[in-house]
Design brief:
Elements: H1 2-6, E1 12-16, H2 22-30, E2 35-40, H3 43-55, E3 60-64, E4 78-83, H4 95-98, H5 102-105, H6 114-126, E5 127-136, H7 142-151, E6 154-161, E7 167-174
Parallel strand pairs: 1-2, 1-4, 2-3, 4-5
Antiparallel strand pairs: 5-7, 6-7
């Protein structure tokens, strides 16, 4: 998200399901010219995000609301949409996973992809032509999310790896006028 925001002067960046605000704050502090917005539904997480934002000089525009519908004024205006949504499938029971609040974990549906799919659709609404979506997901969800993004308004999508080399993020680009758009799914980054 930082790389994509740096590539666009005065980038408008939205962090959906911001939680503590860590991603939004990282983008805002690493890309000083960016306008960064963040949305959070949980009252407890929103309070934490507000405290963290104050500690950095209120560099993020925080909104308490549903990431699937908030920020209507930014539809079609965003350069980058980033999200670490609830995506955990119901069969996941590891102690690490269970440590977080349920609202932050369970993505819905048998594969945990209900919320991530909702946010792919919201991201394509928010993104301007050529806009980028970056979304964290579980290792086994990459191919499904890549295909979903391509079927719902993005023309390029690929799975990226985390610092341990595991396939953990969706990177997708909305159709833009500056490149030939063939709709193919790229190789992992």
């Amino acid at each position: 998200a930082i790389v994509a925001a740096r590539a666009r002067e005065g980038a408008v960046v939205v962090d959906l399901c911001t939680g503590s605000g860590a991603i939004a704050l990282a983008v805002a502090t690493e890309v000083p010219g960016a306008q960064v917005y963040a949305v959070e539904l949980s009252e407890q997480a929103y309070d934490v995000a507000q405290r963290n934002n104050r500690a950095y000089g209120n560099v993020v525009h925080l909104v308490r609301g549903d990431a699937r519908t908030a920020l209507g004024e930014l539809v079609g205006r965003c350069d980058v949409v980033v999200t670490n949504p609830p995506y955990v499938p119901p069969m996941e029971v590891s102690p690490e996973v269970q440590a977080d609040p349920a609202l932050a974990l369970w993505g819905g549906g048998p594969d945990g992809l209900d919320m991530p799919k909702d946010l792919v659709r919201r991201a394509v609404e928010l993104a301007k032509p050529g806009g980028i979506l970056v979304m964290e997901h579980a290792e086994e969800q990459g191919a499904a999310l890549c295909d979903y993004a391509l079927a719902h308004g993005f023309v390029e999508a690929r799975t990226g790896v985390d610092l341990t080399g595991r396939p953990r993020l969706l990177w997708a680009r909305k159709r833009g006028e500056e490149r030939g758009d063939d709709g193919s799914c790229g190789l992992p980054v």
